[in-house]
Task: inverse folding
């Protein structure tokens, strides 16, 4: 090799690390608490799933205080959705959190999630932040057509309310038809 080729190779090797950004895992510390507006929910020993783009990236369980710690999340830009499942809770979206390069995220989430409203007074989905496809959940006797529609992947909206298809009332108060999540 000629001297100029060594110089070019050396310059590339020196400049290459500037273009490669290392990816460090993010630690998530989450405190799940009862929403003061609805104290009927248990927050201890919940099964927690963190999803990104619909795929689970971490699963675990909250402790007796409702806290969980996760330090295995790769730091991607964009939101992570936190779901919990437990007795009397069902599967519930409790938060959609952007990491955006942070090395540690310490946050408080309430069950059920705090209501946020748009300028017209509609409830906003915590995932898509829109209110045009958010419906209150109606619990009651399970209807056959409700169960068939759910199995077919169709949402069941009757008279402006999402039909849960069960008489067991859960913590979720609203349903987003766009994201297919209860919160």
Result:
């Amino acid at each position: 090799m000629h001297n100029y080729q060594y110089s070019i190779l050396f310059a590339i090797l020196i400049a290459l690390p500037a273009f490669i950004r290392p990816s460090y895992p993010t630690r998530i510390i989450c405190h799940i608490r009862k929403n003061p507006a609805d104290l009927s929910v248990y927050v201890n020993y919940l099964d927690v799933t963190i999803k990104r783009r619909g795929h689970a990236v971490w699963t675990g369980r909250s402790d007796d205080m409702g806290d969980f710690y996760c330090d295995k999340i790769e730091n991607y830009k964009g939101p992570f959705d936190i779901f919990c499942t437990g007795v009397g809770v069902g599967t519930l979206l409790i938060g959609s959190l952007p990491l955006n390069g942070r090395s540690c995220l310490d946050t408080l989430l309430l069950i059920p999630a705090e209501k946020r409203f748009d300028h017209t007074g509609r409830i906003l989905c915590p995932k898509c932040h829109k209110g045009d496809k958010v419906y209150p959940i109606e619990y009651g006797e399970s209807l056959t057509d409700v169960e068939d529609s759910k199995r077919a992947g169709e949402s069941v909206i009757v008279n402006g309310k999402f039909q849960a298809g069960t008489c067991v009332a859960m913590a979720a108060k609203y349903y987003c038809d766009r994201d297919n999540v209860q919160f």
